[in-house]
Amino acid sequence: MRRRPGIQGLQRTVQARDQYKELGRNVAETKLEQMRAQMASFKEHLEDFALKHRDDIRKDPVFRAQFHTMCANIGVDPLASNKGVWAQVLGFGDFYYELGVQIVEACLATRSLNGGLMDMQSLMRYVARRRGSKADPVTEDDVLRAIDKLQVLGGGFGVVRVGDRRLVRSVPGELNTDKNQALLLAQGRGYISKRQLTEAYNWEEPRVVETLWSLLKEGIAMVDDQGPGGQRLYWFPCLESSGNVQADMPG
Amino acid sequence: MSDFTFPFFFNYPPYFTLQPVKETRQKQIELWTELILRYCRHQKEFIVSTDPADDSPLFFNRSIERRLNREARVVFLNELVSRGNAQWLDKSQQQCLVLWKKLGEWADVLYSTIRQFGLQDSVMTLDELSSGDDVKDTELEGAPKALLTEVIRLLEAQGKAQMFSGDGDVGVKFF
């Protein structure tokens, strides 16, 4: 015979549920407690690590990059604040702050010559010269990090990719696809002609003209009417990383 | 004389073509005018030509095969003229006197040289002032007549000199 649910049965069920709830809460609390302790000890260890290797992190650019990667993996940003424990432990804030200032300086000093697009290698040479030989070495990774931090200031700082080359942009504005394509084509030689651009991408004449004119207007390109055959060449100072156009800038 | 070091832009072809965009051209003018003054001072060149056939190393970079055309030369020199750092020698703007020292400064140089050598009250020719024994190894050595004439005119206005012309030559007396 089947038992019907009685008042006692119901009460028992409710009781059991409450007990489970209680137990669950206890378990969760213990877990949380453990996690807190783990986090605290982890943070402590990370700080210990950072402190212990402080000199390596500051002096050795490769090690520094690895440290950054590690921090990124575990969701810690040592550069997030200048006041945090990281800045205090490592003096990181100052390092990137200083680098940021030097990058801005380099970009401003050369802006009227390159239209606000500066080759990464030129920028690094400029920065290295500005810092002097005694300063800790700086890598592209550091420069990229510093630029990333500069973005919060507005002002259009950013990094543009043209093929396998990185250009640092210091003026607001987009380098649209067409302009990027034009720069890409000019890589290596440092210049292009209208005809080369037309033939390379099969563009209609107005598109070519518009792209080149726009690059001229922004100061990114310069014309040269004395190329072979007298055709007009469009040169890009921002692509002159090996040449002296940017590197010899009066500092 | 030590070798002249050309600036970075001298090896970059587009700087030899007058730029169509205003801001870029402004920068180009700035760089070229500075170069012209620095070059002329270093080489002790007083007169430059706007004739594009002129192969002065100042306006022609053989290694990249680029030269300034007449229009570009005139634009850059006109900028110097407007700043008092140059003077056209003819209406058609063929020749330009480059004043890396302004006329007033040249007047001071000339007058103090004259005083230094005790040549006041004696009459000198322009030739003597630019290539005579007295001015040898001074800044005046090699100064063209065009420059001297301008400078002496300035001194005349200050009452410090007087020019005479006679026998096809020009004589100057300093006070």
How would you name the CATH homologous superfamily of the largest domain in chain A? Winged helix-like DNA-binding domain superfamily/Winged helix DNA-binding domain
What integer is the average pLDDT of chain B? 88
- Span from first to last CA of chain B? 35 Å
Number of domains of chain B: 2
Largest protein interface, residues of each chain:
A-B, 24 and 19 residues
Order of strands across the main sheet of chain B: 1-5-4
The total of beta strands of chain B comes to 8
Q: Report low-confidence residues of chain B grouped into runs of 5 or more.
A: none
Helical content band of chain B:
25-40%
- Give the overall shape of chain B, derived from the CA principal axes: elongated
pLDDT average of chain A, as an integer?
82
Q: CATH superfamily name of the largest domain in chain B? A: "Winged helix" DNA-binding domain. Chain C. Domain 1
Radius of gyration of chain B: 18 Å
Gist of the model:
The complex is a heterodimer of chains A (251) and B (175). Chain A has 251 residues and is mostly helical. Chain A has helices at 7-52, 54-59, 61-73, 85-90, 92-114, 120-131, 140-150, 177-186, 194-201, 205-217, and strands at residues 117-119, 158-162, 165-169, 191-193, 222-224, 233-235.
Please give a structural write-up:
- The complex is a heterodimer of chains A (251) and B (175).
- By secondary structure, chain A is mainly alpha-helical.
- Chain A has two domains: 18-78; 95-239, Winged helix-like DNA-binding domain superfamily/Winged helix DNA-binding domain (Arc Repressor Mutant, subunit A).
- Chain A is 59% helix and 9% strand.
- Chain A has ten helices and six strands, in the order H-H-H-H-H-E-H-H-E-E-H-E-H-H-E-E.
- Chain A has helices at 7-52, 54-59, 61-73, 85-90, 92-114, 120-131, 140-150, 177-186, 194-201, 205-217; strands at 117-119, 158-162, 165-169, 191-193, 222-224, 233-235.
- Chain A has a three-stranded antiparallel β-sheet with strand order 1-3-2, with helices on both faces. In chain A, strands 4-6-5 form a three-stranded antiparallel β-sheet.
- In chain A, strand 2 (158-162) and strand 3 (165-169) form a beta hairpin.
- Chain A is elongated and about 105 Å long.
- The N and C termini of chain A lie far apart (100 Å).
- The model of chain A is unreliable at 243-251 (pLDDT under 50).
- Chain B has two domains: 8-98, Orthogonal Bundle (Arc Repressor Mutant, subunit A); 103-174, Arc Repressor Mutant, subunit A.
- Chain B is built from five helices and eight strands; from the N terminus they run αβββαββαβααββ.
- Chain B has a three-stranded antiparallel β-sheet. A three-stranded antiparallel β-sheet of chain B has the order 6-8-7. In chain B, strands 2-3 form a two-stranded antiparallel ribbon.
- Chain B starts with 21 loop residues before the first helix and ends with a strand.
- The mean pLDDT of chain B is 88.
- The A-B interface holds A 112-113, 115, 191, 216-217, 219, 222-227, 233, 235, 237, 240, 243-249 and B 7-9, 11-17, 19-21, 23-24, 27, 65-67.
